[in-house]
Amino acid sequence: MTTINKSAPATVNMGAVAEETLQQKLDRLELENAKLKADAEKPKFGGGVSAKVSQQGAISAFGIQSFPVTLYHNQWMKLLGESTTPAALAIKGAIKVGEETKTLRLKDETIETYCARTGKPMPKKGAPRA
Question: Which residue from 107, 101, 100, 106 is spatially nearest to 119, judged by alpha carbons?
């Protein structure tokens, strides 16, 4: 039976060239592993959150998931509250622009009252929504 000394480093006599090749491969794999760990920590879907006010007056946030998240002004304010994260600030910035240009539509507001208030034309039936 062979006894293994766990305190001594395992050495294999494959020559200086083979040992150097193994060391290079180990270094390459360690760098690749570090890169994969760094990529896993980055946020997905472009890495940033942006927001804009749609033609119908809702606020869409991009970069949270693969499709935009769209809510009305009062829904975003209820959801975000006093949050100061970069995503929340981007969405609040879009809300501020919408308030200044009076293009926001409230959740319970009909399309007729929204168009009358903003002076926008009524959308045609069957027309695609933007």
Answer: 101
Kindly tell me the sign of the dihedral angle through the C-alpha atoms of 93, 95, 98, 102. Answer: negative
DSSP state of 89: H
Whether residue 111 contacts residue 56, with contact meaning beta carbons closer than 8 Å, is answered with yes
Q: From residue 75, how far is each of 15, 42, 94, 104 by CA, in Å?
A: 69, 28, 14, 12
Q: Specify whether the CB–CB gap between 94 and 49 falls below 8 A.
A: no
Quick one: CA dihedral 83, 86, 91, 95, positive or negative? Answer: positive
Q: What value does the mean pLDDT take over residues 61-67?
A: 82
Which residue intervals of the chain are DSSP H helices?
A: 16-41, 73-80, 86-101, 111-118
Beta bridge partners of 62: 50
Is the separation of the CB atoms in 85 and 100 below 8 Å?
no
Query: With 80 as the cut, is the pLDDT of residue 30 above it?
Result: yes
